Amino acid sequence: MPVVPATEEAITRAAQALAHGEIVAFPTETVYGLGADARDAHAVAKVFAAKERPRFNPLIVHVPDLAAAEAYATFDATARKLAEAFWPGPLSLVLPKRANSGIADLVTAGLDTIALRAPNHSVAQRLLAEAKRPIAAPSANRSGRVSPTMAAHVEAELGEVPAMILDGAPCPLGIESTVVGVAGDTPVLLRLGTVPREAIEAVLGHALPLANENAAIASPGQLERHYAPNTPLRLGATDVRTGEALLAFGPNAPQGAVASINLSASGDLEEAAANLFASLRRLDESGAMAIAVMPIPEHALGEAINDRLRRAAKAR
Ligand code: TXA
Ligand code: MG
To answer: Is 44 touching ligand 1 by the criterion CB < 6 Å?
Structure first.
C-alpha cells in the first residue's frame, strides 16, 4: 500500500526515495503532485511514463523559496515582484532557464524556459527541506484526467506506481496553480489557476493578457485534452433533465437529479474551487447519463473554475 500518513518519519522516507531516483506523490495547497528529483533524468522519465504524459509537455519544478529558485532561472524585476508577492503560494512562473541549472532537459521539454513554484503546504515544504533537491512535479493524475485533491484519488489514478503516496488530507485550494510567463517583454497568463488574474494585475499595475492557446508561447499542456471525467458535462444548466446528475452552485439548486453535489450552497467561489475535482469524480461514478453544471460567475476564482469545466466539457 503506497498511501501513508504524512508523518515526519514518512516524509524522511519519501525524501530518501527521491534521492534514490524513485517517484513519490505528495500534497500541495493546490492538488497532489507526482514528484521526482528534477536533476535526475531517469527519475523524471518515470513521471512521464506513470502519467502517460506527452514528452513535449514540460513540468513545474518545486522549490522552497525565491532564493532557491534563483539557482535555476533568472528573475527580472517583474518576476521578482511576483515571486515576492505570491510565494510561497499557487503561482508558477515561467522564466528564462539558467544554462548551468542542472535541471534535466526532459523537465523543460527542451525549452529554454523553466516553470518554478514555491508551494505553500507544510508537507511539500518539509519534503523539499529533507530532500534538499528541486522536485519536478506535475499533478498526480494520468494525463488528460481530473487532478487529484486527495491521496485516495492518486491511488485510484496511479495505484502502486509511486514508491509512496504521502497522505496530507484534502488539498485546501483544489485547483492547480496559475501559470504566468515572465520570459518575454510583457508577462502573459499561460494557465488560469488559483491566484485570480485580478490579484496578479493588482501587483503588476496593468492588465495580464491570457496567451492565445494557439500561440507557440502558450503552455504546451493547454493544447491537450484535459480535466476530463468520463460522463459528458452540460454547462450553464438551470434545470435537470432525465437521467442527469447535478453539479450545483449557490442556493437555488433544482431538484430531481439522480445524484447531486453543491460546490458551495452559499455561492462562495473558494469553497467551490476546493470541492470541484472531488465532486466531478464522485458524480462521474454515479452512473448518470450526463452531469448538468449550474452557471458559475466568471470573476475571481470563477474564471479558473469555468476554464476547467469548459475543458472537461469539450474533452469528448
Ligand atoms: O498546482 C500545480 O501547479 C500542480 C502542483 C502539483 O504544483 N502542478 C501542476 O503541474 O499542475 P502540471 O504538470 O499538471 O501542469 C504544468 C503546467 C502545464 O500546463 C505545462 O505545460 C506548463 O505548466 N509549463 C511547465 N513548464 C512550462 C514552460 N517552460 N513553458 C510554458 N509552460 C510550461
Ligand atoms: Mg496536470
So the answer is: no
